[in-house]
Amino acid sequence: MPKDHGIGASPKRREDVRFLSGTGNYTDDINLRGQAYVHFLRSDVAHGRINGIDTAAAAAMPGVLRIFTGADFEGVGGLPCGWQVTDKHGQPMQEPGHPVLAQGKVRHVGDPIAAVVAETAAQARDAAEAIELDIEELPAVVDMKAALQEGAPKVHDDLTSNLCYDWGFVEENKGAVEEAFQKAAHVTTLELINNRLVANPMEPRVAVGDFNRASGDSTLYTTSQNPHVIRLLMGAFVLGIPEHKLRVVAPDVGGGFGTKIFHYAEEAFCTFAAKALNRPVKWTASRSEAFISDAHGRDHVTKIQLALDADNNFTALRTDTYANMGAYLSTFAPSVPTWLHGTLMAGNYRTPLIYVNVKAVFTNTVPVDAYRGAGRPEATYQLERVIDKAARELGVDPIALRRQNFITEFPYATPVAVEYDTGDYNATMDKLEEIGDLAGFAARRRESEARGMLRGLGVNCYIEACGIAPSNLVGQLGARAGLYESATVRVNATGGLVVMTGSHSHGQGHETSFPQVIAEMIGIDESMVEIVHGDTANTPMGMGTYGSRSLAVGGSAMVRATEKIIAKAKKIAAHLMEAAEADIELKDGAFSVAGTDKSVAWGDVCLAAYVPHNYPLEEIEPGLEETAFYDPSNFTYPAGAYACEVEVDPETGKVTIERFAAADDFGNVVNPMIVSGQVHGGLAQGIGQALLEGAVYDENGQLLNASYMDYAMPRASDVPFYTVDHSCVTPCTHNPLGVKGCGEAGAIGSPPAVVNAVVDALQSAGRDVTHIDMPLSPSRVWQAMHG
Amino acid sequence: MYNFEFERPASLADAVAALGAEEAQALGGGQTLIPTLKQRLASPAKLVSLTGIAEMQGVSAAGSSVTIGGATTHATVAAEAAGAYPALAALAGNIGDPAVRNRGTIGGSLANNDPSACYPAAALGSGATIVTNAREIAADDYFQGMFTTALDEGEIITEVRFPVPEAASYQKFEQPASRFALVGVFAAKYADGVRVAVTGASEEGVFRWSEAEAALNHDFRTDALMDLDINPANMIGDMHGSKAYRAHLVKVMTKRAVAAML
Prior knowledge:
The complex is a heterodimer of chains A (787) and B (262). Chain A is built from 19 helices and 28 strands. Chain A has 787 residues and is an alpha+beta fold. In chain A, the strands form 7 sheets. In chain A, strands 3-5-1-12-9-10-11 form a 7-stranded mixed sheet, sandwiched between helices. The radius of gyration of chain A is 27 Å and the shape is globular. Chain B is α+β, with helices and mostly antiparallel strands and 262 residues long. Chain B has a 5-stranded antiparallel sheet. The interface between A and B is medium-sized, with 22 and 15 residues. Chain B: This is Xanthine dehydrogenase family protein subunit M. Chain B: Residues 1-167 form the FAD-binding PCMH-type domain.
């Protein structure tokens, strides 16, 4: 019998009432008195020298308040990068400046050159068209390998080359890995591209800057996944505003998927301009603008090699990856192809020796940063594709080859620096075989073939590192921030609770699932708990939501704060019942004295805390409010096994996903319905990457598919009804809830399943196709079949 | 978008008069024009909406033809032509999404003549007559290349007359992002012969595949197409498909259209 409340129940999402009834409060819904509007004039060339910007005619146009250019930001800091990677020689990465508005050069199509602030958005746009630019177009570098050639045009003139860093991991393993490859009985090699994606959250980015002349306080309303991080980065590094004079509010946010983690120029601009003009300044991105100004994701070019011994045991793995940084370093860009990617290359397998090389490259393209999964999808894709290829080359069953090499004992220290605390990869594979009815595949393939269609089955595993992260560890790895999370639990006099968290909900359902945890701990109804988030003025310093960390890290902070609340409440209850504190038990929302029938209700204890007439004032303070900061001791390691079944139309190359099964181990699950929804969304994005999506630049650095006419987002009819299961549970051993995180799994685990399935389908028809790069559009599949 | 004047006349005569103004532009359902205006890629001084003219609305069937008012939406055609000309109704019912189908009009689509639109294939494949405020134009004379038609400045498509075939089928292979036709083939069998019109594929817009028509007139079976190939030279080649792929799809979609009619 499923629970109907508390941890493990699936109450409907309370936030959906406002989201589905049009009563949400998104940043674009915020309109302040006297608000002006900014329009950014963006570069339409990928690389050029700015010889002149004539704003005279534009400044005289109706409604124009002021036109800003890079010169106005010369005394202002640039956008900072939050992670410094050290290269294989121990040198820090090359770190270029990133001005709020372009200075000297433009470096990608979409780079902001000037900002027009006017009374209306239309007037700002009209005036922007009247700005006369003198830009000398320079040759662009788009292809990463070409960008590293001697004599290639430099994106940043003050750097020695377009190489950001050349990272080796683990450098000390390199020799042993080479040796293992020389001894290998079999080596499988695969070259592949992890396609560049545009996140495309439904809500485009918006920023509203405000300045209070009387108090000197600045406020930024923004579409962010982590308002405290924006406050820290923008306040400390760009504009020089201390935290107590700067408030950042991220109200309802319509999807982030990573692309709203980062601090963007438009946020700094609106905050800066509001003060300069003493008026609120608003910017709302158009969808076209989003394509050329939101950080993109992925964009790796990789060669991976797997060595096996004569018994098909994995003996070594090595990879060479080129990772596109784009034109500037976005906030966490350097960490994605390194610490979020190299550390996952062991996957679910006992490969004893691993060496990962990553060259991060500047190009004249939109900056690339974390996108749902961030590094882990790139790791999983190449690993699970090369294993599939190895199984085919060796003529062994791909599931059996995986099972043979699974890690089965925990904790397990990988050769790439992380320690998996728990897991049971055979259990999720067993579950997958059951829920995916893999035994029935052969019959389904015959049925497809009878209709002239090719059917393929693709299976793979994944592991991810979530719950980012132990602060002391990431500090050693180059993070310029801590990665704890915070919660303040405020109990009101009549027993209701408000929880102020640094985690941010932008679709994850925190307002529903977090109260389930607290209600369970106290034994009260979930409706007595309210979650407050997204405003630096009324929540404790937090690091925000990404990397599937909110429940594992933010939820743990909430548990710690609630534990403090319960400990104090027990003292009060002991006083009220004239009993020893050690004898007090809390159950079903009442405190009782063990072994007696004495009891006092939760609400009465709360009331006593705020109306302390009968209260141990000499021992404890009145009130019932506690804050906790939680810093995890390790990552969490969700893992699972996915199966995709496709049909390929041999005449057209069109791929249809017929079945998709996902068996995940997320540790303990608070709200199974929300978890299923998270997996569904991740799968849709992973299938989107595998079949549909992919930013295409031409050689001049123009983004060719910068609209939905050419950039294919997955629609409902592109995805099947999923079969998902998260009943395989190995609880995380190091956080109080035993949870691991579920937000990114679907997007990490699904691309290799889709590609493995298509290759399987083509091979079933005798086609000698071992790999097709994503997206597997009909034309690419057809080309591969007829190549 | 830039500012413009807006008129919504109630009669054809008023619409023609309004379109006589300097830099005036007719507005059908706006499914191409409005996004173009929002991108600031066009700046007409005046938009003349054709959606308020009663005589340009609706579907009527008489004898062996179906007549559709120029301002009739795709959704209306999908619903009201289903009995008289099912292949045409099915085509209309699969253009874009419900929002597009409830705004977009047949006249707007044919006047724009997007090389990947569906309706041009139906009009050419049916040998339809494009009726304007000034004259009647045979489909064979109407389509003159990508975004180019026989329409004069200010000329309005008032209705489109489709002769109803013995059998017809439209097979559309969708471009994954826009869901316009990457290749669409409309085949129709009339007493006096088979017509095969192809959209989405050619750099010159919708065209008749005369070799396929000849082969099918000789032998109306899919096997009749077996040895035919279309020259990829004039096909569109882009990120969604090479010239060779489109040429291949023309044949596959034609075969499927014929199979659906047998």
